[in-house]
Amino acid sequence: MTAGNSNIEVAVALPVHHTFTYSVPSFLSPFIAAGKRVLVPFGQRRVTGYILGSATETEPAEIKHILDVLDQEALFPSSMVPFFQWISDYYKHPIGDVIKNALPGGLTLYDYASLTITAEGNAALTNNTVTSLQRAVLNLLESGPCRLKHLSDRLNQNVPGALIQSLQRSGWVSKTRELRPASTKTRTERQIALAKSIPSQDRLSKARHKIIEILRQQGEISMPALKRQVPSATRLVRALEKDGYLIVRHKRIYRDPFGETIRADTAFDLNAEQQSVVERVNDRLSQGFATFLLQGVTGSGKTEVYMHIAAEVLKQQKSVLVLVPEIALITQMERRFRARFGERIAVLHSGLSAGERFDQWSLILHGKVDIAIGARSAIFAPFPAVGLIIVDEEHDASYKQENNLRYNARDLAVVRAKRNDCLALLGSATPSIQSYYNARSKKFIEINLKQRIERRSLPAIKIVDLRESMGYRGVRRFITPELHRSMKDTLDRSEQVLLFINRRGFANFVLCRSCGQALRCKHCDISLTYHQKANALRCHYCGFSRAATTSCDSCGSSGIKKIGLGTEKIEATVQKLFPKARVARMDRDTTTRKGSIFKLLKGLKDQSIDILVGTQMVAKGHDFPNITLVGIICADLSLSFPDFRAGERTFQLIAQVAGRAGRGASPGRVILQTYNPDHFSISAAKEQNFISFYKQEINFRKTLNFPPFSRMIQLKISGKDQQRTKDCAATLGNLCLSLKTSNASVYASVEILGPIESSLTKIARRYRWQILLKGTRASALHQFVGQLMANNPAVFNRRRVRVVVDVDPVSLM
Ligand code: ADP
Ligand code: ZN
Ligand code: ZN
To answer: Cα separation of 545 and 702, whole Å?
Structure first.
């Protein structure tokens, strides 16, 4: 930043969409740098803001001074500012909050009000005009200021706001705002060294002598290290320091989130396919931005390819960012990278404490590491010079953040790579339709790994038609004789079984047991969802509704059945069928506690679990060689999601979960149970043929104008009051309609679907509605929402009904 200009551009950590200009008093100007936090006056409050750079415009209006600079060092490199601005603009999210989301937690300072007694207040205590409650408050404050929030607790009785106001009016107390220090502190360790010239040692005790000897021989040493040699060091060091023998410094240390020691490995000799892929990417390394899409079957050695390319990037003094969809997989990736690249790795994910995350962030910021591995938020890792951004399992829906700042880290990887003029490398066995379409249309460069390592075969997939087991009763119907037999054989060989059922807690869907068809919307070809209260079937895209029927549209059979079946029921049934087997379950309910996923994975690894029942969590890239049977209980559950991506998800899930089988020496087997054996998602997954799946799916998308042929933005409306929420949705719907008609030529391509009630009609006591905006022209769609928000700030900032903008929504429920 130039020294001459004393105005800076600041993004405040508040829900406002634009930035503000502040001036810098001269005593603070030496401390100004982009990426630091400042304290600024904002209305009646003082708030934290982030310096983005010099102010570009000199506003004629009165410009306020900043009050303070909060950081000694910048929290992010200034090169990230345009990236943050792009995100704010694209995701329609306040810029200050974008930055707050990007930074590790625990940094933001909070304002709070506190009460202090005045001289008049002291005087008032001596006369009798005060009420007893007033007296109690004043008495308390005599011993020091008190936070307003704590007053009632400290007095053990309710202190009404009116009473505080009366005290203020009388001039007996004053209210001030103070700052609470950030809760994240860096951890330091005492480092002990000898003083330059030390007093005589003649009269020192033996132990003190020993300490001085150690320091003489070993130089500066940390307190814990010293204590290992002299257990009573803490006390002795204090005394020695006081007498001028020692110098004690507090030195910053980094908390290490990794426990286990990892032995170094050496790179494999790549096979020919891997070699050619690595060469193609490496050839592009110094030629600026490009995105590669690596489509490689499960077990084809993608990670090895990542590591070879990463090594090349590190040679060029640039850093590598590796995104992995979830914590358990991060650990696996980290272990392999650490074995190869040693200590120069930072890890970022939600399993770390705020302090640990802050430390990892600092390592990256200070150039102590050149590789960062993490979940979606690692896309914000503050590397000044990124050379490569890898997104493993790029199809995974968990790259999408579903609250607050609703971004997709996979998409941001491409955006950041473009801004950094470097490479993005997206990898998956089952790429998203979106990414593969980009490869087909030459936006991305496609590279392939078609064979498993050592030519291991992909597991054989056997389809079992659930329509044939209609005669069985209850949950038994879902452990078909075929599956039952295979499970028994597998257990007899002391091998492990994985059972997969994708059941989440949402409204039932309806399926015909004779023909396997789910009832679908005639406008959207999306499964209808059964609403029990209304006894109706509804489309969650367009709002189409029809009475619940008892007979099938396709075949006329009366075998219509609501499906509602989950992991818990399957676990219980399996345990009954195999009383001796050790059965465990992995789903959102059993993995809420920190570390519980690792416990389950460890159980699989050391084979203390025979059968694992789980949701899509188990489908993801784990590598357990002793799993030889995978059972997919009912593939139709995901196929019949009320979502245009249902086919895509089903294909991905089956191919991924099947990929868990037969990774070791013994071959794997998959039993795929379904009511729809002929559906192309299922038959393509059986052949594990991504291309044939893509070809059919892309036609469906094109016909109905779904992404990638259009873009979507969803407005999510929710509130605790049912009527108010509904009314707000209606108002917003009308605002959309009138905006469209007011500028018909520009917005012709914008379609407005809804408002309709969401599939999950109520979550956490909030009623939910939605409006889906769809457009073939991204720019028009974004302009439409931008204008809608700018024209109606009140609607988007309501207190009781929340309106959230979800750009490129993944979950439409
Ligand atoms: P993917 O990520 O494609 O599923 P991985 O990278 O996990 O595949 O590789 C599968 C297994 O093959 C791993 O155990 C890995 O160490 C091993 N592997 C990878 N490349 C080679 C190679 N060139 N030679 C021998 N083994 C390899
Ligand atoms: Zn039917
Ligand atoms: Zn519809």
So the answer is: 25
User: Of all residues in the chain, what percent carry a pLDDT higher than 70?
Assistant: 90
DSSP 284-347: HTTS--EEEEEEE-TTS-HHHHHHHHHHHHHHTT-EEEEE-SSHHHHHHHHHHHHHHHTT-EEE
Cβ neighbours of residue 142 closer than 8 Å, sequence gap 6 or more: 117, 122, 125
Q: Do residues 352 and 416 make contact, with C-beta atoms less than 8 angstroms apart?
A: no
Q: What is the pLDDT of residues 780-800, one digit of tens each?
A: 999 999 999 999 988 988 888
User: What one-character DSSP code corresponds to residue 80?
Assistant: G
Atom of ligand 1 nearest to the CA of 298: 4
CB distance 430 to ligand 1 below 6 Å: no
pTM summary value: 0.78
CB 447 within 8 A of CB 281: yes
Q: Mutation test of ligand 1: which of 266, 269, 278, 304 has the most ligand atoms closer than 8 Å to its C-beta?
A: 304
Q: What is the pLDDT of residue 485?
A: 94
Provide the b/e sequence for 330-368 (b: ≥16 CB within 10 Å): bbbbbebbbebbeebbbbbbebbeebbbbbbbbbbbeee
Helix, coil or strand: residue 518: strand
CA distance 320 to 335: 16
- Tell me the pLDDT band of 563, cut-offs 50, 70 and 90: low
- In this prediction, residue 295 carries a pLDDT of 95
Surface-to-core class of residue 282, CB atoms within 10 Å of its CB (0-12 exposed, 13-18 middle, 19+ buried): middle
**Beta carbons of 121 and 135 less than 8 angstroms apart:** no
3-state helix, strand, coil in the chain (%, to 5): 35, 25, 40
Our answer on whether the CB atom of 268 is closer than 6 Å to any ligand 1 atom is yes
> How far apart are the C-alpha atoms of 155 and 137, rounded to whole Å?
8
Tokens of 755: 């408002």
**Cβ neighbours of residue 550 closer than 8 Å, sequence gap 6 or more:** 558, 560
Q: Cβ contacts of residue 364 below 8 Å, gap of 6+?
A: 319, 346, 372, 381, 382, 383
| Residue showing tokens 């917005």 | 747
Q: Which two tokens stand for residue 332?
A: 């696996």
Q: Which residues contact 378 (CB under 8 A, 6 or more apart)?
A: 321, 322, 323, 348, 349, 372, 409
Contact 438/290 with Cβ under 8 angstroms? no
SS3 621: coil
φ/ψ bin of 42: left (φ > 0), alpha (ψ from -120 to 50), beta (otherwise): beta
pLDDT for residue 524 is more than 80: no
> Using a 6 Å cutoff on CB, does residue 299 contact ligand 1?
yes
- CA-CA distance, 744 to 598, in Å (whole number)? 55
- Phi, psi values for residue 577, rounded to 5°: -70, -35
CA 274 / ligand 1 centre spacing (Å): 10
pLDDT band at 565 (very low <50, low <70, confident <90, very high): low
Per-residue pLDDT tens over the stretch 536-550: 787 766 778 888 877
C-alpha 449/C-alpha 293 separation (Å) is 11
* Phi and psi torsions of 500, nearest 5°: -115, 130
* 3-state secondary structure at position 765: coil
- Closest ligand to residue 303's CA: 1
What are phi and psi for residue 315, nearest 5 degrees? -60, -30
Distance 517 CA to ligand 2 centre (A): 6
Cα 506 to Cα 444: distance, rounded to the nearest angstrom: 36
Rounded to whole angstroms, the Cα distance separating 304 from 425 reads: 13
What local confidence, expressed as pLDDT, does residue 255 receive?
Answer: 47
Judge if the beta carbon of residue 53 lies within 6 A of ligand 1.
Answer: no
Q: Residue with the nearest Cα to atom 9 of ligand 1?
A: 301
Ligand 1 contact via 271 beta carbon (within 6 Å): yes
